[in-house]
């Protein structure tokens, strides 16, 4: 077994322990450090996370092509924080499985990946009796294949054992996911804004701004939580928000007045509480608020996706929404797409707003269930055939 540094208490960290530590690290993977972190800080944070991965030889500071260093570069390249966390978790699961199987991951073959695939199909990525969904298995295999391809391209691996492994196919057409109706969205937005006006606190105004951004733009939650105040800009008479889109590229969209008004109120309140003019306010677009009684918690940190999730559910419950227990940040995206399509907005425009690479994602997952039924071609077919049928008494 490879020797690794000991814990502070002197006990050794064995390979299995490193696997557990790596999975724990997923929740706070340092590819998502403080807002405004430099590229060097991001790389250092990723290196700390990769150091926890089992089954790989220790990094050699004199060799820039060691597997651990290449893994850092692989995680770093053109990936959003969300994608980094997912790929890191998937790689940690594979390497932990290799460690427990006594397998060198660089010597793995297709049969080994098939065995790993069979394991996660039964137990899931975390080893619990919770089978991974076919889409999860397919994503994990895609991530592992990407890692091996990166190593191959740097002459650090002789083969990609994932290439020939059969990946589960996603269902051709999934059941429509839930979205809020227009009355429920209006009730939630009204409650968030009325609460902000009633309380007048920085946190309440931030929550109203968050709700408006989610439901009026359809942005992914990562696009909001990684945005900074400086990402707000003016262009051709529009106030725009620049954000990090899926795949790691930058994009932008205009903010309509109903989303901009609560955001403006929040930023004004936050700047006033910090004792700076609004124009000099910096940091995350939406930040944690100072603790009312604990000076060691001054706020100013980016909201996490968990923060957004909890805030949305709390507001939904307060607003009396029946779906409060199942609402999530992604509900806002589904709702935006569903409402637009139900009101006749061309699917191509909705696809562009939501940033879907494949128009089928927009059509199949964001269209309203009722709209799909109403517009089904079976009715057209029945009408066409009916025009040629003779409905007289049968002989």
From TrEMBL:
InterPro entries (UniProt xref): CB (IPR044068), DNA_brk_join_enz (IPR011010), Integrase-like_cat_sf (IPR013762), Integrase_catalytic (IPR002104), Integrase_recombinase_N (IPR010998), Integrase_SAM-like_N (IPR004107), Tyrosine_recombinase_XerCD (IPR050090)
Pfam families named in the record: Phage_int_SAM_1 (PF02899), Phage_integrase (PF00589)
GO molecular function annotation: DNA binding
One biological process term in Gene Ontology: DNA recombination
Keyword terms: DNA integration, DNA recombination, DNA-binding
The Tyr recombinase domain, residue ranges: 175-380
Claim: Transmembrane helix is one of the keywords in the record: no
Residues spanning the signal sequence: none
Domain Core-binding (CB): 60-152
CDD domains given in the database record: DNA_BRE_C
Name of the protein described by the UniProt record: Site-specific recombinase XerD
């Amino acid at each position: 077994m490879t020797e690794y540094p000991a814990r502070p208490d002197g006990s050794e960290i064995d390979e299995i322990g490193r696997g557990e530590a790596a999975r724990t690290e997923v929740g706070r993977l340092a590819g998502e450090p403080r807002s405004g972190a430099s590229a060097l800080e991001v790389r250092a944070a990723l290196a700390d996370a990769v150091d926890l991965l089992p089954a790989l030889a220790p990094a050699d500071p004199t060799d820039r092509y060691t597997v651990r260093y290449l893994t850092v570069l692989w995680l770093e390249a053109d990936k959003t924080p969300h994608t980094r966390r997912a790929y890191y978790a998937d790689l940690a699961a594979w390497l932990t499985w290799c460690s427990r199987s006594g397998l060198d991951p660089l010597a793995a073959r297709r049969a080994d990946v098939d065995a790993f695939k069979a394991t996660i199909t039964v137990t899931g990525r975390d080893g619990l009796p919770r089978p991974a969904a076919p889409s999860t298995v397919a994503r994990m295999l895609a991530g592992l294949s990407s890692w091996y391809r990166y190593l191959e391209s740097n002459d650090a691996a002789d083969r990609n054992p994932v290439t020939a492994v059969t990946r589960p196919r996603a269902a051709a057409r999934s059941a429509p996911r839930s979205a809020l109706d227009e009355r429920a969205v209006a009730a939630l937005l009204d409650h968030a804004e009325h609460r902000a006006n009633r309380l007048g606190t920085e946190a309440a105004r931030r929550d109203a701004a968050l709700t408006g951004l989610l439901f009026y733009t359809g942005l992914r939650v990562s696009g909001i939580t990684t945005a900074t105040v400086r990402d707000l800009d003016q262009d051709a008479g529009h106030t725009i928000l620049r954000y990090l889109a899926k795949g790691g590229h930058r994009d932008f969209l205009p903010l309509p007045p109903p989303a901009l008004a609560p955001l403006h109120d929040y930023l004004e309140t936050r700047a006033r509480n910090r004792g700076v003019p609004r124009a000099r306010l910096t940091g995350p677009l939406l930040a944690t608020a100072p603790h009312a009684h604990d000076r060691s918690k001054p706020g100013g940190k980016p909201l996490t996706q968990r923060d957004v999730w909890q805030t949305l559910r709390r507001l939904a419950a307060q607003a009396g929404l029946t779906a409060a227990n199942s609402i999530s940040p992604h509900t806002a995206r589904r709702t935006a797409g569903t409402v637009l399509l139900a009101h006749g907005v061309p699917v191509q425009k909705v696809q562009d707003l939501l940033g879907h690479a494949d128009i089928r994602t927009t059509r199949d997952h964001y269209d309203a269930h009722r709209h799909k039924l109403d517009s089904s071609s079976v009715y057209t077919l029945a009408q066409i055939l009916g025009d040629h049928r003779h409905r007289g008494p049968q002989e």
